[in-house]
Write a structure and sequence with these properties.
The protein has about 425 residues and is an alpha+beta fold. Among the domains are: about 100 residues, Rossmann fold; about 80 residues, ATP-grasp fold, A domain (Dna Ligase, domain 1, 2-Layer Sandwich), CATH 3.30.1490. It is about 45% helix and about 20% strand. The strands form 3 sheets. The protein has a 5-stranded mixed β-sheet with strand order 2-3-1-4-5, sandwiched between helices. Strand 10 and strand 11 form a beta hairpin. Helix 1 packs across helix 15. The longest helix is centred in the last third of the chain and has 23 residues. The two termini are about 35 Å apart.
Length: about 425
């Protein structure tokens, strides 16, 4: 049988630890997969930032992208490669550029998701532009922020319509705090959103291809403690709702790798933040969950490369909207959305492929997590972020959590 190499590119920003693991685990697995009429092996390379011609030519079959949500040159290179070279990339770059938290709220509310009551406000301040003064004096309507706050209800959150990392987010418990938050918003375009007050569970669902991980999240803790290690915190039925919700969002917008934050109140999960393509992947924050992230990432990248997974050049919303128009309970609609999502992500084919081909990759990954190479990679990331006197302590802590997670996963699988 003829041999061929599939090339996987890593498009990176300040990613230190996980690319080391990705490269070394894939090399250690020594995959040679019989797929169709070929025997495939895999090469991985970090994508450089450099000038590029607007002509055909791209060496990669798949790019795992962690950069284009904020780095314009790389986003435009990826667009070129999709349009001219048939590249498959994590997360549709046009969608990442265009579909902000605001548009994701609108779309999912249109599908019936229980999005908390949300209102967009005019900016408090503006960058000076020609015709701005005339436009505002002619068309800007005065409004009573206190009245709007009362209509939305307290407590509420004021937050930018796009962006992430909790930047610009303020909690308002009353009118005075709402007004202060608006005064401090400066040129941000802001939402005011009703808080899910009285919630009893905060979950962050991470989707990588058809794979979903549910994590109990505690935003009140320091960053390295927010992703808790607790398991068994929701029922099977609740877990299915969260997985269907995450995959519906991801496939609607063409995102392979995205997270959805949801709060549960009175048995209902309210999605509050879910336009997070390329979510946090660093060992210092997700630690216990890091081996799942990395192994899931490797498996999806290899599957996409081996099967020549095609990148849709546009988004097809209509199947979701057809379901949304049906007169049936939202729970039934969500199940139907989830089926579309799994079909689009080839969930059954992926599972079959994983069972047939990817066990050596999983074994190589688990061996790497128990090796000294994990310690070295973790130390590099910790040293980049923590003061020198804390490097040993936190390296040991994160490595211990990773290895505990691997032990726990193997116990579950046995």
């Amino acid at each position: 049988m003829p041999k061929a190499t599939r090339h996987i590119g890593l498009s990176l920003g300040a990613d230190i630890c996980w690319p080391i693991a990705f490269e070394e685990i894939l090399a250690a697995a020594k995959l040679e997969l019989k797929v169709g009429r070929e025997v495939l092996d895999f090469a991985v390379e970090r994508v450089s930032i450099e000038p590029f011609d607007l002509t055909p030519g791209c060496k990669y079959d798949v790019v795992v992208d962690r950069l284009t949500h904020w780095f314009t040159l790389q986003r435009e290179w990826i667009k070129k490669c999709i349009l001219m070279d048939g590249l498959y990339v994590y997360n549709n770059p046009w969608s990442v550029q265009s579909y902000t938290k605001h548009s994701s709220y609108c779309a999912m509310a249109a599908l019936g998701m229980p999005i908390p009551k949300t209102m967009m406000l005019p900016q408090k301040n503006y960058e000076s532009k020609d015709d701005l003064d005339y436009t505002l004096s002619a068309y800007a309507k005065m409004f009573d922020l206190g009245k709007l706050g009362g209509e939305i209800g307290y407590p509420s959150f004021m937050k930018p319509y796009d962006g992430g990392g909790w930047q610009g987010v303020s909690r308002a418990g009353d009118e005075a705090e709402l007004r202060q938050a608006y005064e401090e918003s400066d040129r941000y375009l802001m939402h005011v959103q009703k808080a899910v007050d009285g919630s009893d569970l905060f979950v962050r669902a991470i989707g990588i291809g058809p794979q979903v991980r549910l994590i109990k999240y505690d935003p009140s803790r320091p960053l390295h403690e927010r992703y808790t290690t607790e398991t068994g915190f929701c029922s099977d039925a609740d877990a299915q709702v969260l997985k269907d919700t995450c995959l519906t969002i991801n496939t609607f917008f063409g995102w392979d790798f995205n997270s959805c934050e949801a709060l549960r109140k009175d048995g209902v999960f309210y999605p509050i933040d879910f336009a997070n393509p390329c979510p946090d992947s660093q060992i210092n924050s997700i630690h216990y969950h890091w081996p799942w992230y990395l192994t899931a990432n490797l498996k999806w990248a290899v599957f996409a490369a081996a099967t020549n997974r095609r990148m849709p050049r546009n988004l097809d919303f209509e199947p979701y909207y057809r379901i949304a128009k049906k007169k049936q309970p939202y729970e039934e609609k969500l199940k139907a959305y989830g089926k579309i999502a799994r079909d689009r992500l080839q969930a059954e084919a992926f599972e079959e492929f994983s069972q047939k081909h990817l066990r050596p990759l999983e074994e190589a990954a688990n061996a790497w997590y128990r090796s000294d190479r994990l310690v070295e990679a973790a130390r590099k990331k910790v040293a980049h972020l923590f003061p020198a006197h804390e490097v040993d302590e936190f390296t040991e802590r994160f490595v211990g959590l990773v290895r505990q997670s691997v032990d726990d996963m193997e116990k579950t699988q046995s």
